[in-house]
């Protein structure tokens, strides 16, 4: 069965320092993986996606993630945090063989705080 | 380009009153449509999904229902709201025609039941 674990519920960084949000997944097949960002009282916005092409995926706003099959990880990184990055981040896995409608499994979310 | 609209953005309703949240998608045909709920501290919960007009699947038994009267319209309803229905409701769509499976979300509807 598919599952996704976001290892930190809260991450706090200083502006200008690197960001690392960790995600591990469990999948019987080669999954598709996504990172979404949600600002307060807003919908979720797609940051980036991995779909079995390049293992290092670049997304919007300077974020990137690396798919590591041996570690079953898909960690999200950014070299330098900006105040506007403060939000909640969701790691998502998709298993095309999980049922009739290609179910997405959402992680519990990581709240990123950025301090001046 | 495709857009998704959700309304109302904010709603305060008394217990026992009815509910109707509406979602429409533009710029695509035959999308898969979804309703999710975010309750405080409980993550994202899939409520309903639809693969076509009149086709609704429920993920969680509850006080809510969904309908899809038109290809790009998805409605979430309740006849009598409960306190536990409070939360942030998100509509989403996905195209399986040449897409890579990601969901596109609306801006959400904040429901407070008093």
Description:
The complex is a heterodimer of chains A (116) and B (114). By secondary structure, chain A is mainly β. Chain A is 0% helix and 53% strand. In chain A, the strands form three sheets. In chain A, strands 2, 5, 6, 10, 11 and 12 form a six-stranded mixed beta sheet that branches. Chain A has a four-stranded antiparallel beta sheet with strand order 3-9-8-7, with no helix packed on it. A two-stranded antiparallel sheet of chain A has the order 1-4. The model of chain A has no long low-confidence stretch (mean pLDDT 90). Chain B is built from no helices and eleven strands. In chain B, strands 2, 4, 5, 6, 9, 10 and 11 form a seven-stranded mixed beta sheet that branches. Chain B has a four-stranded antiparallel beta sheet with strand order 1-3-8-7, with no helix packed on it. Chains A and B meet through strand 5 and strand 6 of A and strand 5, strand 9 and strand 10 of B.
Any chance you could write out the topology, listing elements then pairs?
The complex is a heterodimer of chains A (116) and B (114).
Chain A lengths: L2 E4 L3 E5 L4 E3 L1 E4 L5 E7 L5 E7 L5 E3 L5 E5 L4 E6 L8 E8 L9 E3 L3 E6 L1
Parallel strand pairs in A: 2-12
Antiparallel strand pairs in A: 1-4, 3-9, 5-6, 5-10, 7-8, 8-9, 10-11, 10-12
Chain B lengths: L2 E5 L2 E4 L5 E8 L5 E7 L5 E9 L2 E4 L6 E6 L2 E6 L8 E8 L9 E2 L3 E5 L1
Parallel strand pairs in B: 2-11
Antiparallel strand pairs in B: 1-3, 3-8, 4-5, 4-9, 5-6, 7-8, 9-10, 9-11
